[in-house]
From TrEMBL:
PANTHER family per record: MARINER MOS1 TRANSPOSASE-LIKE PROTEIN
Annotated protein name in UniProt: Transposase
Molecular function GO terms recorded: nucleic acid binding
Domain of life: Eukaryota
Xref: Pfam families: Transposase_1
Length: 148
């Protein structure tokens, strides 16, 4: 497929990855300022928003860099419907903008084997767009990063 003068080139590959990013919300110190007399104890200030929160980032990139960065809205689950309507529609627009002559017809998509990626609601629109999905390599514990 990638032979010289073959039908596809490495520039046709679009890779997608998802990851969870934790973040903290810490109120600014100026909101905790108060006057205290010399004999009194300092009041305990609780930080109401100091829990760790997670947000899912989905990033698609190709040979020239990032195409799409999608942040899953809070209290939302990644489903096939969200993946197609929100994420893949952005990817399609980015590819069409970057390569207007070729569009999505030569695109090879590499994403993992997550449920929303393998659902019929996802694979059918990809076929209609002419996007070929590359098989994701099987997990191999001897190649995965481990604890050193």
């Amino acid at each position: 497929m990638f032979e010289p003068r073959g039908p596809k080139s490495l520039s046709d590959i679009v890779t997608g990855a998802k990851t969870w990013f934790p973040f903290f919300i810490i109120p600014p110190k100026r909101l905790n300022r108060m006057w205290v007399d010399g004999q009194g104890d300092r009041p305990v200030v609780l930080r109401p928003g100091f829990q760790s929160r997670l947000r899912m980032f989905t990033v698609f990139f190709n040979y020239s860099g990032p195409l799409v960065v999608d942040i899953l809205p809070q209290d939302t689950t990644m489903t096939a419907t969200y993946y197609v309507q929100s994420v893949l529609s952005q990817v399609k627009s980015a590819i069409n903008e970057q390569r207007p002559k070729v569009s999505t017809s030569r695109t090879l998509l590499l994403h993992d084997n997550a449920g929303p990626h393998k659902a019929r609601a996802t694979t059918q629109p990809l076929r209609e767009l002419g996007i070929q999905v590359l098989p994701h390599p099987a997990y191999s514990p001897n190649l995965a990063p481990g604890d050193f």
